[in-house]
Design a protein that fits this description.
Layout: H1 2-11, H2 14-17, H3 20-41, H4 43-66, H5 72-78, H6 80-94, H7 99-123, H8 133-137, H9 146-164, E1 168-169, E2 175-176, H10 181-198, E3 209-211, H11 215-219, E4 225-228, E5 233-236, H12 245-256, H13 262-273, H14 279-300, H15 302-310, H16 314-327, H17 334-349, H18 361-370
Helix pairs in contact: 3-4, 3-7, 9-14, 9-15, 12-13, 13-14, 13-18, 14-15
């Protein structure tokens, strides 16, 4: 009887030998290729899909992983070597009768790539190809002068100084966030709810931040947070100083809501933070954006940079200095070069200027506040 089964299996075509789930993955993957192409040729279609269809995928993924107290994506990465070993053992037991069996197994395994590509295409990809944030906000984005950078920096410095009066600082060092991560999460969700009322392109979603357990190791890659599109999780590096956490978290939550481009996620994070009724959340938004602006100002005019920084209150300047000292430990690392190259390649493939797009939030900030004049 076993011989008859084997003979029947050999009579099957190669495609027929593949598991049904693999066939489904490949079929959806083919649909996803056409769908991705449609995003690239139609801005309006990308916006429609992102707002009404991708939002549902993101919400379902976020809710499915919401009640897991740790980052499910991080766990998958940690256990990846064990998963690979388990797959090899399984293949050795069930797919070594012939080279045809090996080929069937390999093609079935590759179908997982089609699944992840499909998940990316349906849940996150359209955000890279829709209308840009400046158009959604009704502002004019253009090349900016050193004077414009300086004026924007002064405006932000005033607001930083105002909120800094309600903040506790360690002696000549970092500020102290008066919230747990869970409390910060709740305050950011409240701020997002307010922002959603003002900006209809931001998806309303009740979600949960996930702290990365290997945050210290992650710091050597210079990654402060990451949105995992295949698990719907907004993950943040909690080894970084307190004042960076609300802004970073708001950035990853922006990705979770379909704001894909990095500069736009940065600016949405800022807009959300300043909508908070909490001084520390607002302070994080103002100071992080200020740092982007004055970094650009430093490259344009060192004297204006010094003048702008000098307007900050002394505790805030100590905070910025403390961050520079903190980052020295991670500044020059092989891990950061590798992760930077990978991230730059990924972002470039998505049609953005690569990792340089993070700093392009400066253009949005100048345009946003320039319209008030």
């Amino acid at each position: 009887m076993n011989k008859e089964v084997i003979t029947e299996e050999k009579r099957k075509g190669f495609i027929a030998s593949l598991p049904l789930i693999s066939k489904i993955f490949y079929a959806v993957g083919i649909v996803s290729i056409f769908l991705y192409f449609a995003y690239t040729v139609s801005e309006s279609f990308a916006d429609f899909f992102n707002r009404y269809i991708s939002s549902a995928f993101r919400a379902v993924l976020a809710y499915l992983t919401r009640f897991i107290p740790f980052s499910f994506a991080e766990m998958l990465l940690i256990f990846l070597p064990m998963i690979v070993i388990a797959i090899v053992i399984y293949a050795n037991k069930h797919y070594v009768e012939s080279w045809r069996d090996v080929a069937v197994f390999c093609v079935a395994l590759i179908s997982l790539l089609a699944f992840f590509f499909s998940l990316f295409t349906f849940a996150f990809a359209p955000g890279y190809h829709g209308k840009t944030l400046d158009k959604k906000l009704g502002i004019e984005r253009r090349e900016v002068s050193a004077k414009e950078l300086y004026d924007t920096a002064l405006l932000l410095a005033d607001r930083i100084n105002e909120d800094s009066e309600a903040i506790v600082y360690r002696t000549q060092s970092f500020s102290v966030m008066p919230h747990t991560l869970a409390e910060m999460n709740d305050k950011l969700i409240d701020a997002y709810d307010v922002a959603c009322e003002k900006y209809d392109f931001i998806q309303k979603l009740d979600s949960r931040l996930k702290p990365v357990m290997l945050s210290e190791a992650m710091s050597y890659t210079h990654i402060t947070g990451v949105y995992s599109f295949f698990t719907g999780e907004a993950n943040i590096n909690v080894a970084f100083p307190d004042y960076t956490l609300p802004f970073t978290a708001a950035h990853e939550l922006a990705h979770q809501r379909g704001i894909a481009r990095e500069d736009e996620a940065n600016f949405v994070a800022y807009l959300v933070c300043i909508e908070s009724d909490d001084a520390y959340i607002r302070y994080s938004g103002y100071l992080n954006l200020f740092e982007y602006v004055v970094n650009a100002l430093y490259r344009a005019d060192v004297e204006l940079y010094r003048e702008a920084v000098s307007t900050l209150s002394l505790p805030v300047r100590y905070e910025m200095s403390a961050y520079s000292d903190f980052f020295d430990k991670y500044r020059d690392s092989v891990a950061s070069e590798i992760s930077g190259a990978v991230n730059d390649t990924y972002l470039t493939i998505q049609g953005t200027p690569g990792t340089a797009s993070y700093g392009m939030v400066v253009d949005l900030a100048v345009a946003y506040y320039g319209r008030e004049k």
